[in-house]
# Entry
Amino acid sequence: QSALTQPASVSGSPGQSITISCTGTTSDVGTYKYVSWYQQHPGKAPKVMIYEVSNRPSGVSHRFSGSKSGNTASLTISGLQAEDEADYYCSSYRSSSPPYVFGTGTKVTVL
Amino acid sequence: EVQMVESGGGLVQPGGSLRLSCEASGFTFSSYWMSWVRQAPEKGLEWVAKIKEDGSEKYYVDSVKGRFTISRDNAKNSLYLQMNSLRAEDTAVYYCAREAIAIFGVVTYYYYYMDVWGKGTTVTVSS
# Structure
């Protein structure tokens, strides 16, 4: 039941693009399209930013995009803004128990 | 407005019990799978348990099996988590979360992500 692997931190300057990776296995990310990404500001509940690998919920900025290749999913934030500074978690559906697994989390810092 | 409000958290001694509640409003509660997700202090998110729309199926992370029980009362639009034999490592903020769906007539499509979250309730297990 290991968590998906994410880099501990990623940083960028305002206006730049950054990419966060999320590595799983053939039991989760590699097999299913049910990969989602969540943004969490300090002391707040998570908010979904991407679902089904690359879909944005209504109201989420077009600056957020997702993709997947093999066992690794990625979240890209374009035109980085100060408000994007937060923790980001990937998540995937799994073929075995437990049915969901989250990533280790990535702290995004806007320089 | 769609929202969920958790309650029931607090300080409990190791080995003790606590029952968390999550009251939902603004949507048809009985149409959704529901989950509990927790976050230990300064740690990442951990999925804990989920329950089917009618309560007939339940799933748990291994670390809480046999100690935690998820349940729901659709008449009261409420989700519960009964936590027994609590350990220090259960200390966390506990969130209830709704699993996203789309309904097309009589067909329900499951997206397998959590689209609505409560603000969380804090559980501290300490002597």
About this structure: The mean pLDDT of chain B is 96. Chain B has no helices and eleven strands. The longest strand of chain B covers residues 92-104. The interface with chain A takes residues 35, 37, 44-47, 50, 59-62, 95, 100, 111-115, 117-120 of chain B (CB under 8 Å).
